[in-house]
Amino acid sequence: MAEKIKLDTEFITLGQFLKLADVIQTGGMAKWFLGEHEVFINGEQDQRRGRKLRAGDHVKIPGFGEFTITE
């Protein structure tokens, strides 16, 4: 089952999301993490740190888990 990540803003960037979901320790690790790991957003692979995630988006990171963005 996907873990729910609650937003208190309209959107969050993929880099911010990785830190919020405790996948990485610091925001500075986002670029490295995205270069080393596959990330799927709503079924499509996306490695852009600035990709905007909104409520309803589904993020899957093989080996780390699945997450659903909620409001």
Please outline the helices and strands.
Layout (H helix, E strand, L loop, with lengths): L2 E4 L5 E2 H7 L9 H7 L3 E2 L2 E2 L6 E2 L4 E4 L3 E6 L1
Parallel strand pairs: 1-7
Antiparallel strand pairs: 2-5, 3-4, 3-6, 6-7
Structure, described:
- With 71 residues, the protein is of the alpha+beta class.
- It has a single domain, classed as Roll (Structural Genomics Hypothetical 15.5 Kd Protein In mrcA-pckA Intergenic Region, Chain A), CATH 3.10.290.10.
- It is built from two helices and seven strands.
- Strand 6 and strand 7 form a beta hairpin.
- The longest helix is centred in the first third of the chain and has 7 residues.
- It starts with a strand and ends with a strand.
- The relative contact order is 0.31.
Put the structure in a nutshell.
This protein is an alpha+beta fold and 71 residues long.
CATH superfamily: RNA-binding S4 domain
Q: Categorize the overall geometry.
A: globular
Rg (CA only): 11 Å
Count of beta strands? 7
Q: Spell the H/E element sequence.
A: EEHHEEEEE
Spatial strand arrangement across the major sheet: 1-7-6-3-4
CATH overall fold name: Structural Genomics Hypothetical 15.5 Kd Protein In mrcA-pckA Intergenic Region, Chain A
Unreliable stretches: none
Number of helical stretches of at least 4 residues: 2
Instruction: Give the structural class.
Output: alpha+beta
Q: Bin the helical content.
A: 10-25%
For the largest beta-sheet, the strand count, sense and barrel status come to: 5 strands, mixed
When the domains are counted, the total is 1
What's the end-to-end separation, in Å?
A: 18 Å
Range of strand content: 25-35%
User: What is the averaged pLDDT score?
Assistant: 96
